[in-house]
Design a protein that fits this description.
The complex is a heterodimer of chains A (94) and B (249). Chain A has 94 residues and is of the alpha+beta class. Chain A is built from 2 helices and 3 strands, in the order E-E-H-E-H. In chain A, strands 2-1-3 form a 3-stranded antiparallel beta sheet. The longest helix of chain A has 12 residues. The model of chain A has no long low-confidence stretch (mean pLDDT 91). Chain B is 65% helix and 0% strand. In chain B, helix 6 runs antiparallel to helix 7. The chains are: A alpha+beta (94), B mainly alpha (249). Chains A and B meet through helix 1 of A and helix 2 and helix 6 of B.
Chain lengths: 94, 249
């Protein structure tokens, strides 16, 4: 059976205000079943308050073979990290 | 007190025995996601059982606690309905049992939220959310199996045929229930039937399934007259406490 059921990617919002994060995947025949399978598989320990499921086939992924041109150029651009500012002690979040 | 003990055992034993039945699917369900779903439902039910049997223990003349009630009573002392002890069969038969039971249990717990017993009301208020999901899960699978392939349709039809004769018992009220209904502790299960019938009919229609033919209802669980299946279930469930009494871990 499982061979015929498509794969769905599961995203969970841990609490209101946070964004949904990828948690894993489930097999299901349709969206409704996928949502329930995601609930049963990934939210048993209070992991979240909201779920998204997306057909895995809908996800467009970058090609690992292209990672040198896509990602490596960022490696020596440390000035893009905002780590050079002096942050006043009284400011907790920035 | 005797009445409350009996009632708490009925509520607790329904959940305990069905929880144990569902746990038998662990590692055997048609797919991983369903394995987890059935085990989750089983754990919800065993959690309910722990609360109800704790209440039973507090009103027990013999001073037994929830563990003693679960693991040291024999068949004749169990008060669950016959439906929950029926064998799992195939996945469809398990779903048929869950469908009939959870739809009933949700209506029951909705009523029990207003019980004069604060403990019963509190347990019901927590459990009704769990059971609402059990209903959603079971109803959806009835529709998928009924309105699915020829094979799934045959199987769910057989599953419903097997379980149907145990539905009447859910709506039976004896002296124990009647006196507790009068004091506002218990729910009057007889009054739940019309809404249950309506729910069942609606889901079966959506599943393009016929309502099983009426059969003479099998009864007796509430007074300890069980089917042959309960003894086998207990021998597995109670093995450890019988072989090593009082073992803890």
């Amino acid at each position: 059976v499982s061979k015929n059921w498509p794969l769905w990617e599961v995203f969970i919002r841990a609490k209101n205000g946070l964004s949904h994060r990828h948690a894993g995947s489930v097999h299901a025949a349709d969206a409704k079943m996928a949502l329930e399978a995601a609930r049963d598989t990934y939210t048993r320990r209070m992991e979240g308050v909201s779920l998204w499921v997306v057909p895995s086939a809908s996800i467009v992924a970058s090609d690992p073979g292209e990672s040198s041109e896509l990602f490596e150029p960022a490696a020596d651009k440390i000035y893009r990290h905002p780590t050079f500012y002096v942050i006043p002690d009284t400011v907790k979040n920035i | 007190m005797r009445g409350l003990f009996d009632y708490a055992c009925r509520l607790g034993d329904d959940s305990l025995i069905l929880g144990q039945r569902l746990s038998e699917w662990c590692g055997h369900a048609p797919m991983l996601e369903l394995d987890l779903a059935l085990a989750n439902i089983g754990l919800d039910l065993i959690g309910q059982a722990a609360h109800f049997l704790k209440l039973a223990g507090e009103t027990d003349d013999e001073g037994r606690n929830a563990d003693a009630l679960a693991f040291h009573r024999d068949v004749l002392d169990f008060r669950n309905c016959l439906l929950v002890e029926q064998p799992n069969g195939d996945f469809a038969q398990t779903i048929a049992r869950q469908f009939l039971f959870s739809n009933w249990q949700e209506l029951l717990f909705r009523d029990l939220c207003a019980s004069r017993s604060e403990t019963i009301a509190a347990i019901a208020a927590k459990a009704v959310k769990e059971v609402t999901y059990h209903v959603r899960f079971a109803n959806e699978w009835i529709v998928r199996l009924g309105d699915g392939t020829a094979e799934s349709r045959t199987r769910i039809t057989h599953g419903l045929d097997w379980m149907w004769r145990f539905a009447d018992e859910l709506f039976e009220a004896d002296g124990t229930i009647e006196s507790l209904v009068e004091t506002g502790v218990a729910a009057d299960v007889r009054k739940l039937r019309p809404e249950w019938d309506m729910r069942i009919r609606k889901v079966l229609a959506e599943a393009t399934l016929d309502r099983p033919a009426p059969r003479r209802g099998a009864k007796g669980g509430r007074t300890g007259y069980h089917s042959e299946h309960l003894g086998h279930l207990l021998s597995e469930m109670q093995f450890l406490q019988r072989a090593y009494p009082g073992a803890e871990w």
